[in-house]
Write a structure and sequence with these properties.
By secondary structure, the protein is of the alpha/beta class. The chain contains eight helices and ten strands. The two termini are 31 Å apart.
Length: 257
């Protein structure tokens, strides 16, 4: 469970260009997957950056399964938090092979040298994990990731973020850069990983259909506040689209993409 208490964050504080993102913001996340919606600039990615330790707030507590992680550095939080970004290349090392990438993920936050990175006794396990993606990556272990498609890279990134069962998984518009067919595939793999591993997940999305279909709960943020908090099964695409568009003047979102 994630608890965010009395969170406040501004940029350019004390200047004429000050932008207040959050002021005494509170949120509790305990469902397997919570969809986070909101207009551009409402603070969704900033919230993820604060949770993961990339950005520090002025005040507030971030409590993960009873642990206050406020003073944890980003690297220390990575022991408990996995994150997948919009850019398929951000969660992987393109110049390394699939095997080297998945070995790195397996040794996340551990001390090691590149010489002892790959453990031969783990290769069979890695192949089984990759096989579950149904993309044939288990047969391309020595292929450099830069030669993979965007969908293959994002699938690998997702697997790497979830393989050690983090206490929290952050999905930052992780299908936004993909074509519709590949996006659906990644969302199905995402749902499967979350359900089989019972990982508490927050998923930023601008796709109303995906938010409802693949999450258990919908939270919409606007002006640094929660303006909608509802079970996904209790709201329709039309209703959610209407609320979203009413807050996003001039940039309507489609009900289904």
């Amino acid at each position: 469970m994630l608890e965010i208490k009395n969170l406040s964050k501004s940029f350019n504080a004390g200047t004429c260009n000050e932008i207040k993102i959050f002021s005494d913001f509170n949120l509790v996340i305990k469902e397997e997957c919570t969809g986070i919606l909101g207009t551009n600039g409402c603070g969704k990615s900033t919230l993820f950056n604060i949770i993961s330790g990339v950005v520090m707030p002025e005040k507030g507590d971030i409590i993960l399964n009873g642990k206050c992680i406020n003073k944890f550095k980003e690297n220390d939080r990575a022991k408990y938090i996995g994150r997948v970004f919009q850019n398929p290349s951000m969660g992987v090392s393109p110049s390394l092979t699939i095997l080297e990438n998945i070995s790195l993920a397996d040794k996340k936050c551990q001390r090691f040298t590149f010489k002892n990175l790959i453990r031969k006794n783990k290769v069979g396990e890695y192949k089984e994990l990759l096989k579950a993606l149904d993309l044939g990556l288990e047969n391309k272990l020595n292929t450099k990731v830069k030669f993979l498609s965007g969908g293959q890279r994002q699938s690998l990134s997702l697997l790497m973020a979830a393989m050690n069962k983090p206490e929290l998984l952050l999905l930052d518009e992780h299908t936004a850069a993909l074509d519709p067919k590949t996006s659906r595939l990644i969302m199905e793999k995402t749902q499967e990983l979350i359900k089989t591993r019972s990982i508490t997940t927050m998923m930023i999305s601008h796709n109303v259909k995906d938010a409802i279909k693949y999450s258990d709960r919908i939270v919409m943020i606007d002006g640094g506040k929660v303006i909608l908090d509802v079970k996904s099964k209790d709201i329709t695409e039309k209703e959610l689209t209407g609320i979203y568009n009413s807050r996003n003047y001039g940039s309507p979102i489609a009900e289904a993409v």
